[in-house]
Amino acid sequence: MDFSLNEVQQMLQDSVRRFVEKTYSFEKRGALLQSGSAESAENWRTVADNGWVGVAIPESEGGFGGSVVETALVAREFGRGLVLEPYLGCAVLGLQTLYACPSSKVREELLPQLIEGSRKLALAYAESESYGMPLPPTLTATQVAGGFQLNGSKRLVLGGAQADLFIVSAAVSGREEGGDTALFLVSADVPGLHRKTWPLHDGSSAAELQLKDVFVSDDRLLSGPAEGARALLDGLAHGTVAVCAELIGAMEKSIEITAGYLKVRKQFGMTLSSFQALQHRMADMASDLELSRSMLHALLAAMEDTDSSERRRMVSQAKSLIGRSAKTVCGQAIQLHGGIGMTEEYSVGHYFKRAVVADLCLGSSDRHEAYCADTLQF
After folding, report:
1. Which residues on neighbouring strands pair with residue 143, listed in sequence order?
2. Quick one: which of 40, 77, 210, 254 is 20 to 30 A from 264 by CA?
3. Which residues touch 77 (CB under 8 Å, ≥6 apart)?
């Protein structure tokens, strides 16, 4: 697979980077956080107007016409700026899971609204016992006259604080397929759905959903038990690519900030960059970054693999390795800054916060490593 950027991809990367540098300076990001909001409506409008929400949706569906590679390019630049907008939760997880569902009237009507940014859709799949992994849901969907009744809870819904629609995974009962994963479209204001918003450590937010006797009509069944698990895994795979690319961007920026600091900070009459021990630590950070970048490339290549089990294993391998590397690199960046790296007023510590939160999203490194171990055949 050729990972050199073509002209369109280079222009996309450059435009996203200009947006981040102009809009998401550390000071502007701090002001946005102090305002009590984890996002800016104006920024989201810019993201949508530039086509970045639907960057991996075909032009025939109203999207940019790119692929998962374009998603990675956008996410990487957002990672460099620690962008707070719900790109991962709404533009990737929600939108890509919807796109992976079988074509329906509801899907065709909703896609243009999501791509233009007028509505936001979040994926609610994680539960208290799943720890972000795509396990069979315990939330139940019972078939009733004219539709289904949903009961249960979902946690760590990324983009859930801003979403007005949710894709909810559920185990269907009362039908022949029984018990398999189905996906339902649920409005945020439907009776019986209670949403609680939680601030996360990195300044972003997530939601917890409680559903009690929530009625969903038959036409809001996006993907039945036969296809629901596949559509969910497709959406999560795309989301994992975005998380990994975002962490690559965070590592790049952390190394750049740290290298700049070591070149100007002096001790004993010499710049810190002249100390061999610190040079070695910077070299280790760069090695972790390059290994992570190669792992992301392997994941992007695997996304084109028709073997779903092999692709899922590669998703877990990438999430495990890149999640750990990001915490190591961003943590070392703090150490090389000394005390100033621990302060809220300095940017480098915020990259470590993002690395910690991102590692726990969509399944932690430990969980994905355990999954890889379970798939080994002796």
Report:
1. 148
2. 77
3. 13, 16, 17, 19, 20, 249
pTM for this predicted structure: 0.94
Residue 217 lies in a domain: yes
Instruction: Tell me the one-letter amino acid at 175.
Output: R
Question: What is the spatial distance between Cα 359 and Cα 322, in angstroms, rounded to a whole number?
Answer: 8
Helix (H) or strand (E) holding 187: strand 181-187
Chain center to CA of 199: 16
Q: Is residue 1 part of a domain?
A: no
Closest CA to 68 of 314, 251, 239: 239
2 occurs within a structural domain: no
Contact residues for 157 (Cβ-Cβ < 8 A; gap 6+):
89, 122, 123, 124, 126, 163, 166, 206, 207, 208, 209
Whether 101 and 231 have beta carbons less than 8 Å apart is answered as: yes
**pLDDT tens for residues 287-329?**
999 999 999 999 999 998 778 888 999 999 999 999 999 999 9
Question: In terms of domains, do 49 and 65 share one?
Answer: yes
